[in-house]
Amino acid sequence: MKITVIGAGYVGLVSAACFSDFGYEVTCVDRDARKVAMLENGKIPIYEQGLEPIVQSNRQAGRLVFTENLKEAVASADVVLIAVGTPTREGEDAADLSFVYAAGEEIAKAMNGFTVIVTKSTVPVGTAAKLREIISKARPDGDFEVASNPEFMREGSAVEDFLRPDRVVIGVSSERAEATLRQLYRPLAAKNVPIVATSCEAAEIIKYAANTFLATRIAFVNQLADLCERVGADIQDVARGMGLDKRIGLQFLSPGPGYGGSCFPKDTRALAATARQYGNPFTIVENVISANESRKRDLADRIQKVVGGTLAGKKIALLGIAFKAETDDIRDAAALTVIPELQRRGAAVAAFDPVAMDNGRQAFDEVQWCADAYSAAIGADAVVVLTEWNVFRGLDLKRLAKGMRQPVMIDFRNLFTLDDVKGSPMAYHSIGRTSQVPPESRRADIIPFKSGTV
Ligand code: NAD
Q1: What is the CA angle 212-215-221, rounded to 5?
Q2: CA atoms within 13 Å, Cβ hemisphere of 269
Q3: Distance CA 234, CA 91 (A)
Q4: What is the distance between the alpha carbons of residues 194 and 52, in angstroms, rounded to a whole number?
Q5: C-alpha to C-alpha distance for 336 and 351, rounded to whole angstroms
């Protein structure tokens, strides 16, 4: 079976690499010449654990090829997977499907013989039907099927998620499309991965429903954390006590600076837009979106309050700019809201992230990029943890505090327990916990942090 993947981003590249690892011949197409050149030279344009060795071994075996030439790649393919971006449409909530439809037009012109065209991108309900229409119009003679195969991989564990998914969803509208997709995923079905065959419409909705449900859990636990601060409970205890209930589970119950990344913000908005479009407003999702947006907006207020009521002339050291740990992706990260806001209020920002600083340099002006957390903290009025990188969990707080103007940590990820920070020179503020831990000797100019504000 010959496979062509359109798009060499997080999803396209990982899918292409993993399918070639199953033994298929895979061509991965991207129109970004720089990306293709890097891949052809054995360089991986994104940070994703475990991806490089799979790409290299399959390239060397001749099963994985990168190209800009969509026409050739599609002509020889039995299955074409579309894995291009579906960002939010400018000024709206709906998904921008222009990349998907443009890819569809190009595929239509190039396909040769029976071809199954599969959307792996996250696309709103009705997209497969529309794509079918576009391709039929461009190639009335074309022998093809359109199917929907949403991807559930998470950045940071994408390879593992692809090779050992909880399930594979295939949305199909004919027996031959189903047979082709079942064959494509035979290596996973053989390992007892459930293959859920549905209509294209159901498959399209499943992806948005899953992401929106997870985003809802995050928004829920964040507001619960706010309540915990006010009533004197510890959110870590509450989340554990809730999550150990098997009906609930522990995942996606960690309070934080609000969800970000390339999926949850745009997918929640797109689902809400679809629901509005069909005259069936999804009010729960609308509330999740606004709760998350206000959480991100509040971050600068929380920091300002802790450092003494004004940010003018202050230096803030940010630890982590990626939207979560184990990725270099900063799309819709909390840092995108908080850095410009801190700067607007007169603060200087220093930052360190283990892998996302190259992306950061392109996104932000006037940030001092540092080699590690300790150098970022020098002269700072507060160290703010934004991303839950493991490397921050073992920080030596004494050493960190030593070079700071004010030894203050605002931990938006609750990386430390209150016991961890007791006795350290750092004033420690976290989320959803009863109280701050004061430093051994508090400086007079630090406004005491009251329970209920971070
Ligand atoms: P991305 O932006 O990282 O990659 C998209 C790639 O497609 C880019 O390299 C772009 O140059 C290329 N491209 C666009 N149009 C093209 C065309 N006509 N021909 C060739 N190449 C083209 O995007 P991503 O993060 O991989 O996401 C892709 C889709 O998968 C989105 O719909 C997203 O919602 C979904 N998804 C993403 C994740 C994730 O973790 N990133 C997980 C599940 C699903």
Answers
A1: 140
A2: 22
A3: 39
A4: 27
A5: 13
In the chain, how long is the greatest CA-to-CA distance?
79
Residue 72 CA neighbour count, 13 Å, CB half: 10
Query: What is the whole-number distance in angstroms between the Cα of residue 84 and the centre of ligand 1?
Result: 3
Tens of pLDDT, residue by residue over 127-176, are: 999 999 999 999 999 999 999 999 999 999 999 999 999 999 999 999 99
Round to whole Å and give the CA distance between 409 and 1.
54
Structure tokens at 84: 């291009």
Distance CA 74, CA 85 (A): 19
pLDDT tens sequence across 347-401: 999 999 999 999 999 999 999 999 999 999 999 999 999 999 999 999 999 999 9
Question: Three-state SS for 30?
Answer: coil
* Phi–psi pair at 111, nearest 5 degrees: -65, 150
Q: What's domain 2-198's architecture? A: 3-Layer(aba) Sandwich (3.40)
Provide the annotated active-site residues. Answer: 263
Q: Ligand 1 centre from 136 Cα, in Å?
A: 24
Q: Provide the CATH number for the domain formed by 199-454 in this structure.
A: 3.40.50.720
Instruction: Kindly state the tokens that stand for 269.
Output: 């908005």
User: What is the per-residue DSSP string for 173-203?
Assistant: SSHHHHHHHHHHTHHHHTTT--EEEE-HHHH
What residues does ligand 1 touch, defined as CB less than 6 Å away? 6-12, 29-32, 35, 70, 83-86, 99, 102-103, 106, 121-122, 151, 153, 155, 262-263
Single-letter amino acid code for the residue at 294: S
- Distance (Å, rounded) from C-alpha 176 to C-alpha 158? 29
For ligand 1, atom 29, which residue shows the shortest CA distance? 121
DSSP label at residue 264:
H
Cα 401 to Cα 415: distance, rounded to the nearest angstrom: 16
Give alpha helix (H) positions in 185-333: 186-189, 200-231, 235-243, 264-277, 283-306
Domain span(s) for CATH 3.40.50.720 in the chain: 2-198, 199-454
Q: State the pTM of this model.
A: 0.94
pLDDT reported for residue 442 = 46
